[in-house]
């Protein structure tokens, strides 16, 4: 049976208190599509206000520290995210893997820390343009998963994987449907290897230049269980049509 689709927005370093009205607009409109799970991952400093503004709507972080607490200046623990009202967090986004030199082992520790307190996790993987052009994208993503998948996950919190080719993020370029299908199938197999039957319950999202005009086609691809959306999640007018496209595929 197909998994319920999840459409999650990643606001990255965008959003001030004046944008809480947009959070309200997105949450209200998303309520019209109960067949789709919708979430917004906002800057950490907005989480508490966003969560208070839209009770019951999923607000998430974009990163989390792996340690429970301690001398980690500027970092935020999983329990702090939860305490602020988050119900999920992204880990291992390529902008952090590249910009903050996060390695697979650290991404794994972050995912485990988040899951252990009951935060749902969206764990990102994806290949560079060079790898895509020279072949080996599936092996590269497979190696990322080998290194960064949490050791185990149970029903306390959900694990989702976001396949985000680095070259597709914010560029307007996307892989072909066949390339997305091949990658999602390979990720599904990897999840099965790691978690057995439970691996079938982990949603696999596609991310990278998803917008209203391409969402319907992307959501129709086998093993695409939703999307992680950057730029097009900032405004309800752009984001909600993507949610509607997911709902249309759900039927
Ligand atoms: C992202 O950063 O997770 C992303 C998918 O960005 P965009 O949709 O803007 O390509």
How would you sum up this structure, described in words?
- It is a single chain.
- 43% of the residues lie in helices and 16% in strands.
- The chain is of the alpha/beta class.
- An eight-stranded parallel barrel has the order 1-2-3-4-5-6-7-8, surrounded by seven helices.
- Strand 6, helix 8 and strand 7 (203-207) form a beta-alpha-beta unit.
- Helix 5 (104-116) packs across helix 7 and helix 7 runs parallel beside helix 8.
- The longest helix is centred in the last third of the chain and has 19 residues, at 177-195.
- The chain is globular and about 45 Å long.
- The protein starts with a strand and ends with a helix.
- 45% of the residues are buried.
- The model has no long low-confidence stretch (mean pLDDT 96).
- Phosphoenolpyruvate is lined by residues 10, 164, 169-170, 207-210, 228-232.
Outline:
globular
Give the strand tally: 8
Helicity level, as a percent range?
40-55%
- Give the distinct bound molecules: phosphoenolpyruvate
Main sheet: strand order = 1-2-3-4-5-6-7-8
Counted by DSSP, the helix tally is 10
Biggest pleated-sheet summary: 8 strands, parallel, barrel
CA-CA gap between termini: 13 Å
What's the order of the H and E elements? EHEHEHEHHEHHEHEHEH
| Multimer state | single chain
Low-confidence runs of at least 5 consecutive residues = none
> Please, what is the average pLDDT?
96
Report the structural category: alpha/beta
Strand content: 15-25%
What is the alpha-carbon Rg in Å?
17 Å
């Amino acid at each position: 049976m197909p998994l319920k689709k999840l459409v999650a927005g990643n606001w990255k370093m965008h959003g001030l208190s004046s944008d809480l009205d947009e959070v309200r607009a997105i949450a209200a409109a998303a309520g019209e599509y109960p067949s789709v799970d919708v979430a917004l991952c906002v800057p950490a400093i907005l989480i508490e206000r966003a969560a208070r503004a839209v009770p019951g709507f999923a607000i998430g972080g974009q990163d989390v520290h792996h340690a429970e607490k301690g001398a980690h200046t500027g970092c935020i623990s999983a329990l702090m995210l939860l305490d602020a009202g988050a119900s999920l967090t992204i880990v291992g986004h390529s902008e952090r893997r590249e910009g903050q030199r996060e390695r697979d082992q650290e991404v794994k520790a972050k995912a485990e820390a988040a899951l252990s307190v009951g935060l749902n996790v969206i764990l990102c993987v994806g290949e560079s343009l060079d790898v895509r052009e020279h072949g080996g994208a599936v092996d590269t993503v497979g190696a990322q998963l080998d290194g960064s998948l949490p050791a185990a996950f149970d029903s306390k919190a959900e694990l989702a994987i976001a396949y985000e080719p680095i070259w597709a993020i914010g560029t307007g370029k996307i892989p072909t449907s066949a390339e997305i299908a091949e990658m999602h199938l390979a990720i599904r197999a990897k999840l099965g290897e790691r978690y057995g039957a439970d691996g079938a319950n982990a949603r696999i999202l596609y991310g990278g230049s998803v917008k209203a005009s391409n969402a319907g086609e992307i959501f129709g691809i086998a093993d695409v269980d939703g999307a992680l959306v950057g730029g097009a999640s900032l405004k309800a007018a752009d984001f909600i049509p993507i949610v509607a496209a997911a709902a249309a595929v759900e039927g």
